[in-house]
Amino acid sequence: MSEPVREAKGASLARWLPLAGWLAHYDRHSLGRDLLAAVIVSVMLVPQALAYALLAGLPAQVGLYASMLPLVLYALFGTSSTLAVGPVAIISLMTASAIAGMSGTDGAALSTPEMLAAALLLAFLSGAMLIAMGLLRLGVLVNFISHPVISGFMTASGILIIASQLGPITGLSLSGGNLIAMGESLSSGAQELHWPTLAIGLGCLTWLILARRHLKHGLMALRMSESAAGMLCKTTPIIAVIVSSLLAWGLSGPLEQGQLVQGEQLEQGKSGMALVGAVPGGLPDLSLPSLVSHDWSGLLISALLISVVGFVESLALAQTLAAQRRQRIDPDKELIALGVSNMGAGVSGGMPISGGLSRSVVNFDAGAATPLAGAFTAIGILLASLWLTDWLAWLPRATLAAIIIVATTSLIDIAAIKRTFRYSKGDGAALMITLAITLAQGVESGIIVGIAVSLGLYLKRTSQPHSALVGRVPGSEHFRNVERHEVETDPELAILRIDESLYFANARYLEDTVLALMAERPSLKHLVLACQAVNLIDASALESLEVINERLSAAGVKLHLSEVKGPVMDRLKCSELPANLGGDIYLSTFDAWQALSIHGSHCGQSCARDGISQTAAVG
Amino acid sequence: MSEPVREAKGASLARWLPLAGWLAHYDRHSLGRDLLAAVIVSVMLVPQALAYALLAGLPAQVGLYASMLPLVLYALFGTSSTLAVGPVAIISLMTASAIAGMSGTDGAALSTPEMLAAALLLAFLSGAMLIAMGLLRLGVLVNFISHPVISGFMTASGILIIASQLGPITGLSLSGGNLIAMGESLSSGAQELHWPTLAIGLGCLTWLILARRHLKHGLMALRMSESAAGMLCKTTPIIAVIVSSLLAWGLSGPLEQGQLVQGEQLEQGKSGMALVGAVPGGLPDLSLPSLVSHDWSGLLISALLISVVGFVESLALAQTLAAQRRQRIDPDKELIALGVSNMGAGVSGGMPISGGLSRSVVNFDAGAATPLAGAFTAIGILLASLWLTDWLAWLPRATLAAIIIVATTSLIDIAAIKRTFRYSKGDGAALMITLAITLAQGVESGIIVGIAVSLGLYLKRTSQPHSALVGRVPGSEHFRNVERHEVETDPELAILRIDESLYFANARYLEDTVLALMAERPSLKHLVLACQAVNLIDASALESLEVINERLSAAGVKLHLSEVKGPVMDRLKCSELPANLGGDIYLSTFDAWQALSIHGSHCGQSCARDGISQTAAVG
């Protein structure tokens, strides 16, 4: 008798801590797969973490900190066995934009510690919002961002990210959250290309692109197995990191080398090349972000947008990967897992995080079996930040920019834009507006306008509903559009098929349509609204139907309804419409036709004459 | 040949200046009707105009100024022959709320000239927005405010207006744009009822209520004709005005009377009773509102809300009145007419205006034949402000409060609230949320939240679309819900009828529904989506269908579509879905049944055996 109880307890624990569900079955085989995946992902994540922290305008170590505790927390709470969380490009860009929108206590731009505090707060708030959404089971809310809007937003963000990296890669000074601001920052003051930076940047870029395209086949030609060649290809960024760091170290003099050893801030080598600079080694401090010293209410909208975008991106990624292994993702649990991870980032010196595309795919390909792979990755990052920080200081920023650019090209999806336009001009317009606003105004305006546009587009589509006058297909019980088919009609009877639910946005349009019809057809005695496509009649539409009924009655025309669906009819019965209706409510349009049309009664008689009962014809 | 040209020119002029359409046919009969209506409306409008200006927190004469030029402009541009525009209760309340939200140059509350300037600017901006909406033909946008939201907003505004008048009628000091602020202002500091004020206020209130209920029948009992008695009843407020002004004058000493004659500001009589005070006589100055000295951008949202609410109110009123005379209102021309009138108010010392309910009904009942009645009313108001201002100074504010209270009770419509709740809990909730937020937070938050709630409600309703597994009604071509009817089914075939358009908000829901169905029915080989109620498939839903198709194919299930509507099919043909679809697209669900079901093929065989061709059975 104790067994079911234990099971139930286990199930309830697993409900909030998915770890409890799979840890019992964990074996040496899974451990091996998770460890291998963790090693590969760690090697890939170190430069990405540094790069995305710089993209967010924060010190490089913040990226490392955001890749420790959050990964462990996701391993505990996440439902995806392969999603690899951490700093990602779009969320870093949004973080930069949110922080840039703030001003310090004296109204000036934020100092670095202030920016850091804001990033922590942003991660913490956005985590709290994700958890709240999860507890309220609001995972479905992401559905309100349409695919074209996401597509336009991703492509525009990719362009913005790549544009923002043109500064570090060329040595030019470039800043701003949108293309216009970047253009202005570039044109202000005389700027000169910094040739050593450009050389390193373009060198890395060329290496990364060539390696991505050809290295795997090259290695396979050297008789390496396909999977080993694939894994090795993922380490190409780390090779760029090592080679360019050595170059930067070689180009600098012993003076700078000595300064760096003493932990001083050194952001430029002797050559004038921008470096990552001194990265504090070791573990981050744990502390709650200070809500008092900051105007945190100003970060609320940004935190909300970061939550939503991060969640949409993670969920889509996790579901795609899960489908390939026939696993299932629970959106509400994912909300909580991402929320806890972000709060973890907020208390451990990190920045807002999300599921990263490239590293999740690598994690998946490397065979990660459980979320423990993420926890092992966190250990890898910890080891790197204990032992490698002295060397990471010499890493040129141009190298990181090249890594970001190559990783970000996958966000830009021109084929999706073309496909959307070919399918529907309206959806294409929503996509292009989102894309244009994101480029011109930045990520926050872009996503807000995008959501508004897709809602507006849908409302516009439904606010002028398609309707058609229908007539009877001769000899059948079917009714078709009089403009498209040869059908029987009756000058005293109009049957209007409404091809949309009736609600406030189109209620008045229906009034106009019916009144125009009445004006055109002075001989009209009966109007039937065929409601087979009407899934809802809201209170506003009910009032419009009452108005239509009154006006038609005043003009001596009876209003009838046909094919009203069950749930709609249940609702109508609670109103006074059925009692006040000038005409009747028919189960089928054919019933209405038989009762009201001259053909209908004629057919009834002729059918009777032909020896077929009228009932059979109706049935 | 010149005739058609002249006609076309006349038509084009009438397009923008409806006056050009009817002025040619104007005759002595119409003139007589318009003059009579103008006299009655003027008598009614003078106290209302003063009252609504005070409600908006502005000097009393602003109400008179807003009843001159705007009325003339509406006569030129309006399409309603009976709509009487001018200061109205809700718009005045919204104006007060907008101005209260501003702060002066030194951060303190606005001075009276600053408030006046803000009101002018508000009228001007809101007029400009209305004209812009009219030129862009956005009259249809008002449909996006649902009836329950309007109903809740009107009732709450009525309650707020009546509550705000409890101050002037009792002599207590009461202020604020919502019930909470009013309650706080009332409880701050020791307050005492002012008995003479209360006596005048309650006296007027009693007179107005009794007169409204019984005077008409009383006069008719005295053998007065019904129409004359009706007209006379509309003058009851002016009787309250005259009697209470005389009382206030009598109660004051010669000193105050002398001060007032010299045009000094005198807002209290000797008795301590609040009076209207010195009203400058004559015409307002014409001048453009100053855009420079003010933070006018802060008024933009308020101006937009005032435009929308004023337009919704006016349009509904004008259409109701027009329907009774079988006339038609053009929403886009009304936008322009109201816009020009509001801009007129903005340049002639007025305040934002709209169509007023009670005075439009009086105008209609008095037989106003053309918009000229409004222009004559403006002349009436002009005469009043030339000759009556010395006397209006003695008018107690309590009298005006009583007039506002009685006029505002018509806004409160408890029956509509009950009706809405009975019909639909969702609509009822939208109404109550709008009502509660308006009462607790004020008019601007109320209308914004109301619009958001009604959109959200609609999206929620459509985001979890009703769908039903259907089976064949034996012996027929009809398919019905398997849970509600006795129908034929097939373990290898599922027919899912989708009762909603497919778009981004419900695309994922469809995925979940189909995947859950697939998990429940391991024997499934064919899934048919019956699309007769699908009026739209947007780009997001298309992607979901592609995902569904892929997942079903992977599991060995074929996806078919049936009864796809013409416009939806045209769209699908532009995508790759038809080519990639695992199954086929059938014209009717019955076709799909015949092709895919074991019953279908069996029936085909048995029908053939029975000597009836299969084609006939399909047709």
UniProtKB/TrEMBL annotation, chains A, B:
Transmembrane segments: 35-54, 115-136, 148-173, 193-210, 231-251, 296-318, 368-388, 394-417, 429-459
Keyword Transmembrane carried by entry: yes
Matches recorded under PROSITE patterns: STAS
Gene: sulP
Domain STAS: 483-573
Keywords: Membrane, Transmembrane, Transmembrane helix
Name this protein carries in UniProt: Sulfate permease
Localization of this protein: Membrane
Predominant subcellular localization, coarse grouping: membrane
Record's bilayer topology term: Multi-pass membrane protein
Source organism: Cobetia amphilecti
